Amino acid sequence: MKLRSRMLASIGVPVLLVLLILSVVSYKYSDSLLTNESEQLMSMTAQKYGSDIETLIQRKISYLDMIALEFVKRAPGEKELIDDLKYYTQKVPGTSGFFVGLDSGKYYDGTGWVPDTSFDHTTREWYKGAIGKTTPFISKPYNNSSDGLMVVTISEGVNPIDTSRPKGVVGTDISTKEIIEEVSSIKVGKTGAAFLIDGDGNFISHQKYTFNDNLSTVENGALQPFMDKFLDTESDFFRAKVGGVQRFYFTYPIKNTNWVLALSVPKAEVLEGSSTLGKFMIILSIISLIIVIAVIYLVANSITIPIIKLSQCVQGMAQYDLTLTDKSP
């Protein structure tokens, strides 16, 4: 191999390797930074809107607390209890009314509804989930028969200190409209969005799916392997491939419920800046390599040409050709 070629190879190849390594390291580092930044942004967004949903629910629970406390402290009579329920039904927005069911079989409704003899509140989910308990119970969402809107029942046990008095449950039906609007308003990046699921993976709010759809079966079951992550009681950040697209997910469990707020955004959208940087580094590497090769070529020529000429002179003198000078070709 000629001296010039050796110099180009011995200097150019290491420089090329260094540029390639720097490009890969820069791309990976920017990828990691953008992923971490996305996780933090999704976490803050989920906490903000999740807190809003928790506040909305807690506001309704606080009214149940007041009714239960009045029932325990004052032991209101039947008429007084009905008047209290009517007052809260009329004054508290976003509910379909307040009601009380006692273990004695008596039922009182603030809307004025009087059930027929076949109605047994002790068999209802809202009653069985709260009777004798100290924490609120939230039912699965269902469609209200009166207007067809999706509602949930929030109920709370009424546990008098005097055990001779009947225990019971106070409850209210709240519309999920405000909650759904809150979730629908969440934006993550350019095309990312949020959805709300219950403890069984049924959709309470989603741009595409309804409560009749389940997380484990939609998208041809692509999300089924991640059910544990979605329904975990702790927030989580992970990635999953859905519909051929890699996506980032962040989950936020809603306090006092078994609901989970989930945020989703395409991975490519998050790492768009990293891809741009990667392309820029590749172009920069190619330009740098061309410049380096050109410099090496010029330097190699400036070094090798005199050496080649000197070598030719020495060879000529070795053959007794003493006519060669520094001007000889």
Briefly say what this structure is.
By secondary structure, the chain is of the alpha+beta class. The protein is 47% helix and 19% strand. The strands form two sheets. Strands 1, 2, 3, 4, 5 and 6 form a six-stranded antiparallel beta sheet that branches. It has a five-stranded antiparallel beta sheet with strand order 8-7-11-10-9.
Characteristics:
Beta-Lactamase; 47% helix; 5-stranded antiparallel sheet; 3 domains; 329 residues; rod-shaped; transmembrane helix; 6-stranded antiparallel sheet; alpha+beta
Flag low-confidence runs. none
Number of helices: 7
Biggest β-sheet: count, sense, barrel?
Answer: 6 strands, antiparallel
Element-by-element helix/strand order: HHEEHEEEEHEEHEEEHH
CATH superfamily of the largest domain: PAS domain
Shape: rod-shaped
CATH class of the largest domain: Alpha Beta
Explain how this protein is built.
- This protein has 329 residues and is α+β, with helices and mostly antiparallel strands.
- It has 3 domains: 3-22 and 274-318; 30-53 and 179-270, Beta-Lactamase, CATH 3.30.450.20; 75-175, PAS domain (Beta-Lactamase).
- It is built from 7 helices and 11 strands.
- The protein has helices spanning 3-74, 78-91, 125-128, 177-184, 227-230, 267-270, 272-318, and strands at 95-102, 107-109, 137-138, 142-143, 150-158, 168-175, 193-197, 203-205, 236-242, 245-253, 260-266.
- Strands 1, 2, 3, 4, 5 and 6 form a 6-stranded antiparallel sheet that branches. A 5-stranded antiparallel sheet has the order 8-7-11-10-9.
- The longest helix has 72 residues, at 3-74.
- The two termini are 22 Å apart.
- Residues 34-262 form the Cache domain.
- It is found in: Cell membrane.
- It is a multi-pass membrane protein.
